[in-house]
Fold this sequence. Notes:
The structure holds 2 protein chains of 2 kinds.
Chain A: E1 3-7, H1 17-39, H2 41-44, H3 55-67, H4 70-80, H5 87-111, H6 120-123, H7 130-157, H8 171-209, H9 227-253, H10 260-287, H11 299-320, H12 322-326, H13 328-352, H14 367-390, E2 395-399
Antiparallel strand pairs in A: 1-2
Helix pairs in contact in A: 1-14, 3-5, 3-13, 3-14, 4-5, 4-8, 4-9, 5-7, 5-9, 5-14, 7-8, 8-9, 9-10, 9-13, 10-11, 11-13
Chain B: H1 6-25, H2 27-30, E1 44-49, H3 58-66, E2 96-100, E3 110-114, H4 123-127, E4 133-135, E5 141-143, H5 153-157, E6 164-165, E7 175-176, H6 182-186, H7 192-196, E8 202-206, H8 207-220, E9 240-243, H9 263-272, H10 277-301
Amino acid sequence: MHEHMKPTPLPNKFFTPTVVLILMIAINGLIFLALRFFFGIGAVTNLDNQHPWGIWIGIDVAAGVALAAGGFTTAALGHIIHREHYHVITRPALLTALLGYTFVAISVGVDLGRYYDIWHPLIMWNGNSALFEVGICVMIYLTVLYIEFLPIVTERFIGKVNLPGALSKLNKSVDKLLRALDRGLDKTMFIFIIAGVVLSCLHQSSLGTLMVIAGPKMHPLWQTPVLPLLFLLSAIAVGFPMVIMESLIASKSFGLKPEMDVLSRLGRIVAPLLGIYLAFKIGDMFIRETFVYLTDFTLESVMFSIEIIIGVVIPLRMFLSEEVRNSRSLILTASFLVIFGVFLNRLNNFLIAYTPPYAQNGYFPSIGEISVTLGFIAIEILLYRLIVKNFPVIAVPVKQTSPKTKYSIRGI
Amino acid sequence: MAKQSRRNFLKTAAAVGATATGMSVLSPKKAEAAPENILSVDRMGVLVDTTVCIGCRRCEWACKQAHDLPAGNIESYNDEATFDKKRRPDDTALTVVNKYPTENKPHVPTYLKVQCMHCDKPACVSACIVGAFSKKENGSVVWDGSKCIGCRYCMVACPFQIPAFEFEKALEPKIMKCDFCFERTKEGKLPACVDICPVETLTYGKRSDLIQLAEERLKLYPDRYKNKIFGETEVGGTSWLYLASNDFQKMDFPKLGAAPAPGVSESIQHGIFAYFIPPVAFYALLGGIMYITKNKDKSEEE
């Protein structure tokens, strides 16, 4: 290896015209968010007693959890099956999962009528509730993600602790503390990594169980007892495309050379994963004979067809081609289609398929709901940029001065 | 990790396994981690005979009085125009009466009182993340405001689309639905709507007795009724039962099977979490894979 890839804080400046635009979207979202807290959910959203859940649950939470799946799939690949080749992407994937889940939790809080009671599930249990399972798993997994991120923080500060003013006396002891923490984490990290994968599989599937109880209120194209399995398989399938997309966009935004060899290798795994998902989805459709609904021209049948053809079949075919996997723009397109497919699937499951029995009118998100959703995505992007500028997350080539350190679980 | 010895790995892994097993041993306690859900043989119910109802809407007024909701002047409930629109129970009215044409007698309308059905196997009790709903011994399904976090999953789950949410409240929004006058019946009083009904559309009693009574009426007056007791079997049975001369689906009742609403979801849930065995086994499997591939790594390096 002539060149060694090492995660390093990036030197780019924070503000660019695009960043300013994203900042404005974020601020707009925060304004509507404030209105929600002052005047209630009804004042900002189009929700009513027939449509209790809108895009804050369908997109921010359901799609948010699915699209943060890159964290556990790369952790499984890099750390559990030990494919060292992929270590350059584990840290960015971890950061996206961390931000993704943080905003899933915040979005849940925004949507809860009594957000200040969000801690209730910790002591008030209902083992029969799929939502309870999702809630507890996400809470623990979020903690696990922060623990997994800690080594990046310790690595950033060890030997560089420089507290301001009077606190500078503490520099040495803080440094010692960080080193102790680092050593402890190094020894125990595998516990958290396995736990992260187990917890992810549990709540990704339980998120599918969530809508099962709605029974006939959900369109038969989506309502199936295997929903949890479909949710899990699609989450696993979308993990790597998400990592590929982030990596390509980040490398473009920061002016780095894209890790094409790693990404195309990663792309090879996507087609089989998508294939398994598609097989179960189609199989379920034939076993329950729901394909009859596809012959009617309805919103449901159109959305279902888009989800399957554009979101699964086309990218599946694309990922099978070596030419696509080796082309920067084509693999980005294919990845984007998979992400779009899973995003649409979650939206369909939670909103389109949900046909309340007494609705006077349909649900379409309000300006406020859309603003908050976009605002949160914007804040995530800004935080990602801020963190990769200040912490060693993205790997850049460095001249090898010392012998390559032995493999460690932290990903370098 | 690389520095970690095989023994250390096994030791920590064993500790994790032991903790997890410990949790699964404690799982009999987990059975209690579910809200109160009593299906007493003596549970009460109400039989609604829609062929008797005159649409006076006194029940709506009495319900609001009993639940401290602004009820207004009782005379205002005589306004026929209210029936122009089909209404649903919401946070301002826990029960409403709607008007439908009668199939055989076009000149006599059928009035239908709508409220929570108080299911025997309630979806809301099963779904609620914090167990804020419970099915009481007397048959009522009751919401506990001290637990609720306002997630509105009960509204997603309810097959009758009954729970309503105070969307306009920024603080302490409530889930509003008929509570079968839980506080009144505790004191031996009748539910407010049953108490005020001037024509005995509503009969309050033991659910088993009410089914008998309904069957008798169906037998005595086969021309008066459609031969069906709505609520006897729907979603596993409901405490509120309906008789009508109309087809129930034509009066906006949802078409429901006899399977309890939470059935499938609960079996999936308990299948995945059978005494924590599947998650623990999965953890162990991943640990094993990690250990094997790590050793393979080492032997390749040597």
